[in-house]
Prior knowledge:
Blueprint: H1 11-32, H2 58-72, H3 78-103, H4 107-133, H5 139-170
Amino acid sequence: MGLTGKISIGGLSRRMVTAVVLAATYAGLVLVLPGVSYGPFQVRIADVLSPLPYVMGLESVVGLTLGTLVANVFSPYGVWDMAIGTLCTFTYTLVDWAIGRLVGYRRLGLVLVAVINSVVVGLYIGALLIGVMAGGGDPPMLFLVLAAESLVPMSIGSFVLVPAIRRYIARGG
C-alpha cells in the first residue's frame, strides 16, 4: 500500500495477482468438476487454461502450477498426484512459455503447445502416475488414453483462449 492507502497493481503486484487468479481459477474448475478431473478417464476442463504461458509471463507458469497443486490435494491418488501432477503442469507450462519466447506467436506454435501439453500429461499422469505408481493398468495404453483426452481442453485453450488473451494483452489489458 502506498501513502494514499491504495493497493498498487503495477509491476510485481500485478504479476502476483495474475498468478493467484490463475491458481484459484484452475483449482476451482478442477474441484467443481471432480468426476471428470481425476483418474484414467478424464477431461480436465481447467486444462483450457494450460496453454496460457505461451502468450503470458512466468506468473502464468507459477499460477497454473500452484492451482494444480491445490487441486491435487483432493485427488484420489493423494501425495503422488500432488507431486507428479504438479511437476507435470510445471513442465509443460514452462515449455509453453519458452516456446512463446523463442518462436513468438505463430499458428504452428498453438498446435505445438496443444500437442506437447497432451503428450506430457499422457506421460506423467497416464503412464507414470496411474500406470506405474497406482498400478492402474497398462502404462503405454494409459499414456495414449490420457494424451488423447487432454488434447481436447488443450486444443480449446490453444485455439480459442490463447488468441483471445493475446488480443487482450495487446490492447494493454
